[in-house]
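haha ok so turns out i had the wrong file open the whole time. this is the CORRECT one, sorry everyone. sequence first:
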Amino acid sequence: MNAHNRAEEIEEAGDVENAAVSQVEDGIREFVRNDIAYLRRPQVPSPDTAPVDPNAEATVNNVNSLIQRVAGTSLAEIEKLIAELESLRDLLHAEGQRVQREISGYAQLSHAAMKSTRMIADNVTQWKRAADGLRNG
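then structure:
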């Protein structure tokens, strides 16, 4: 269920991102049109610098704003995913350590059980020899 919700969130984020990308592309196209139109205009010589076209400056500001919105949304989503992955990494690391401790405990238990079994087998063998010696003796 959580994976389904996550898939829906990703799909919605993709739709928002696609809309934002379209806005950025439209802004860039408008900027390029204005930029090319500015370059095609006949150059008017002036003693000082030529004044900046206010439409071009507004378009640049719009493009910058669109890029910041798209980048902000993408960066926030990326940072959220990074935090999630770091959390999962920490969880996996802790679980790995726990599994190692469990395996070590089972190895010690197994070793102790083998020693006990060996001791019991040795005692049974000694008792059998002693019983055989009493019967034969």
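The chain has a mean pLDDT of 80.
again sry for the mixup
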